[in-house]
Specification:
Strand content: over 45%
Helix content: under 10%
Order of helices and strands: EEEEEEEEEEE
Oligomer: single chain
Structural class: mainly beta
Radius of gyration: 13 Å
C-alpha cells in the first residue's frame, strides 16, 4: 500500500488549500480513509474521515471549514481547507487501516501565516 499526499504550502490566514492523496496497492473504494495532522511540537491528531460510501466525520476544530472527499475511480482522497487559521499549521498525513495494518503517507506541510 502506498499513500502519497500533496498540495501543502504557505497560505495567508483566511485562505484556502486543497490537499490530495493518491492511494495505490489496495481496493481503495472499500476502505475508510482519514486525514491526520501534526502541528509543530504537538501530537498527531485526526482531522477527518470518510467511508467508502462517502460518510464523513470531522474534528470539532475544522467543522464547517474543511471538507473531505474521495474519488473511488481515480483512487484519490482530498481535503479542501477553507478559512485557514494559524492553528491549522501542521504536517498533514493521509491514512488507511488495511490488511491489519496502519498505512501513512509521507505528509505534506501546510503553513498558515497570520
Amino acid at each position: 500500500v502506498q499513500l502519497q499526499a500533496s498540495g501543502g504550502g504557505l497560505v495567508q490566514a483566511g485562505g484556502s488549500l486543497r490537499l490530495s492523496c493518491a492511494a495505490r496497492g489496495l481496493n481503495f473504494k472499500i476502505y475508510t480513509m482519514k486525514w491526520y495532522r501534526q502541528p509543530p511540537g504537538k501530537r498527531r491528531e485526526l482531522v477527518a474521515s470518510i467511508t467508502g460510501e462517502g460518510s464523513t466525520d470531522y474534528a470539532d476544530a475544522v467543522k464547517g471549514r474543511f471538507t473531505i472527499s474521495r474519488d473511488n475511480v481515480r483512487r484519490n482522497l482530498y481535503l479542501d481547507m477553507n478559512s485557514l487559521e494559524s492553528e491549522d499549521t501542521a504536517v498533514y498525513y493521509c491514512n488507511v487501516g488495511a490488511y491489519s495494518r496502519n498505512f501513512w503517507g509521507r505528509g505534506t506541510l501546510v503553513t498558515v501565516s497570520s
